[in-house]
SET domain-containing protein
Amino acid sequence: MIRRGRLQGWLKRPISEFRPWAEFNGVSFDGIKIGPLPGFEGRGSTVIAERDLATGKEPPLVVVPTDLILSLEGVNVSAKADQQLKELLDSLGQFGRTARGAILVFLLFQASISCPDIPESVGVPCPLTEYIKFLPEELLPTFWTEDEHEILLGTTLKPAINAKLNSLFREFEEVRTATANIGWCKKYWWDEDDGFITFDDWMQVDAMYRSRALEFPGIGDCMVPCVDMANHSSGDATAALYEKDENGNGVLILRDGKSIKKDGEITITYGDDKGACEMIFSYGFIEDSMDSAKVMFIDLTIPDDDPLRAAKLAVSTAAPGFRLFDKGDRTDWESDFIWLVCINEEDGLGINFLRTIDGKLEMKSLWKEEELAGTADLRGLLQNEELWDVYQLRAVAILQGRVETQIRTLYETGDPERGDHIRDMPWKLAGRLRELELTLLERAYGDLEDQKLVLVQSQVVRKYLGLDDDEAVEEDFT
């Protein structure tokens, strides 16, 4: 039966039934099987070699028919044969026309079709109705407890989870509001006493999608049965590639130069450039071999004493923060938002109200009377200014101060005590993430200091500050 908030609780089918289901629906396997890795049965299912495999000698390891690929196009094709699904998608407007919106609602709809507690016929069953019953529960951070979230204080994962939960709740309310007047939805999804769907169910379908969606060439974000059972390895450890063949099918092929022994694991990459935070956020793990946080997104604020603060926030089209990343021998950063933070009216920034054709007032940002199409345009304009080195120095000083604050927060929260109700996996992941992010932040602080020392010797900067060549620069650029 459907249990409130535990969608997976009533969708479970044993993985031993997966291959018969897949082959019945046109999937072909050559030299591989799906199941637990020998010796690692508690780790879940993966793609395993049934025999010795070698590049150049193998046809595709898996071929998944195009009609079994769960994509935006696939959902729309299904809706042509299912009036109730079409009604659902139409009710959602723009959200139902996105890959994410269409696929999440499709997953929830398939769960409803399978529900034995819905006595009347809902929807038209299809092969993917059974597919979602094989998907395991994912212990993504959105399902961690409040106590487990608290041990993330000081990491970039904590605000990311908060933002995600807020976003999920907005989506859930949007779906509920949009579908509330559809007869069967009103009765079986949203009825105050007897409705089955809760916010936790929306988190479940989000976890299914977020942890398994692959960006397939020529298809876009989608879920591909069999291929999405493969685990992740980065760099040279990645054993196989996924792509679309000439017939539109999804295929899994061995990488050039790769050989896999019988019973060996066949891995794919979920994205070699993903940082530690994103790996935990989307997939619930960090590779044991990961020795760097790789990428961090750190939030930025506009100071309260900035006279244009409210206007800047209103016109900004950039994420309010900066991306810090590891380039091997050094760190670097990028941000569109920082340039909005570090310039003001006296530099040439203007915020004006313009009247549109229909008579409404619209706020616009300008740089020296030139209208900005978006915040991303600002950096290019500043680069052409004589005071570019001054603007860079301001930006670097602000970023260094923000990095210092993040470092201080990690040190102040220290190693949090492990409460009785904190599970082993969240505890280990939180500790590892703190170590990796602290290391990257400390490296970045030193690199930003080096950038600052170079910029402060610029003749443009010295002239701007009114310094003689022999004077030391002691200005506080924070």
About this structure: The mean pLDDT is 90. The longest strand covers residues 349-355.
